[in-house]
Amino acid sequence: MVGGQVCDVEAEKRQLPLSKEQLLFIHENKTAALIQSALMIGALLAGAEQNYIDALEKIGYNIGIAFQIQDDILDVTGSEQELGKPIGSDEKNNKETYVTLAGLETAKAHVKALSEEAVQLLGQLPGEHTFLDELILSLIHRTK
Prior knowledge:
The protein has 144 residues and is an all-alpha fold. The protein is built from 8 helices and no strands. It is globular.
């Protein structure tokens, strides 16, 4: 997680252009890593089989990347009142985002696809997970 944060800060400080792969590296090693670790540690401590841990790793990845892409979308489409911060700050700071690299509609489609795949993978795991399903799907429509 520290590595992703360092890359993010350095790229922003130096105003370096990022490729989509570099941006995903930052997202993977910040938000996705945080969510993956929380899901995987719980499963590991509960004695889950490796295939369940692997599924939770992928679910955490999808949730983390979808969350970050949605953040980029909200910086373009959100309102300052809802977000509690200025809108368009990424563009003003010349910061590469998923929206600037892939376009708004593609970014929205990726948030939806990643979130739906996470729910689909979660559905293959044993136990009750209605709350998590709803939480993951709320990423698609979150406004803050």
